[in-house]
Amino acid sequence: MTTACLTASLAAAIGVAAPASAAPCGNKGIFGSSLAFGSSFGGLLGSRSDQKPLPRISTGTSRTIGWVTGALSNNRTDTRFGISGTDLGISWDNGSGQTLMAFGDTYGDCNAPGQQWRHNTIMRTTDTDPDNGLVIGPGIPGDIRSGASVSTAAPRTASEAVGSPGVPGVAITSIPTAGIAINGIQFMNYMSVRSWGAAGRWVTNYSAIAVSRDNGQTWTTAQSTVRPNLPAPSPGVRVVDDSNGKFQQSAYVDGRDGFIYQYGTPNGRFGAAFLARFRPADILDLGRYEYFTGDRKTPWSPDKTKSNSVVREPVGELSVAWNARIGRFVMLTGDENRGSITLRTSRTPQGPWSGPTTLLTSGQLSGVYAPYIYAGTSPDSSYLYFTASRWQDYNVMMMRTDLSLIRVP
What we know:
- The structure is a single chain.
- The protein is 3% helix and 33% strand.
- It is mainly beta.
- Pfam families: DUF4185.
- This is DUF4185 domain-containing protein.
- It comes from Williamsia herbipolensis.
């Protein structure tokens, strides 16, 4: 079953919501993941797609480095990959010397039919020191290690990774939320978005894992990993376990103990963070996952209904990584209520996690969201590099936090 057919079969049982009303190119007929962003993060999306110079911000612990995407980036993704606007930039080590990066709704020429909308795109880099700006190599048709997956017919346009019908109220788009490589195979968790709602809120049909055996060139959804998130059962549709809603958005981290840990949040930015773990070989078998219960005697259970939160709400998009320099796992999240990007640390994947340390506020840089730790640098570094997106520009930037300036409990 294709992703589109899967979405259609699930969406047949639910009603149609009102469409969104704006988009990165200012076209009301096109829908982008930026539409759900705003509120506490500040700013309004203009009618033009013009990208502005990235402000040079230094908060004491963190600073901006430069644009990763867009016409004002060193990578000139507008002319090289047909990417004038996009967001997210979720990264992971592909296991063979490259960092793969997954981006959300992607737009190219705003004057072209459909603004060259792709639901998501993948780029690749070998840059291990993004301090002077992340470098992405050229896209070469047929080369699965080039800067992006491009075709002979469109050598300057990054290809879409995971499709979606693009139908408002049924399945608007497919948004990546996490990625990991296991034994040379790439696994990308994504959510099928049914409709955008108020700022920081959206409805999903399901989350699932897409698999690539050619370094992110092509992707296939593993049907065994689909977590339906229908709001109510209907005739002909099986009853959906509410616990699926805890894992509509994800983050992966190697626990350094033989397990891969998957953090999950509900769709939107106002839920708590939950935790599951699995052996690497079992990533596509949800029946072998264990869920953190919070109980001292039986902290892990195969029953997902027993899963308990590890970080209290509100948790926006999140990412987690091990940092050897401070000897802690590091978690970055957005806080929609406060309009901030925060950092937490823990000795173990399940916590207890420290209280949040604010790295950046909307007052310092408005419209910033989705902090994703950059996977291409050494875990021994005292610098934590991460991507973030800016709503007004609808593009991805690189930032840096000096962990030596962070109080670690």
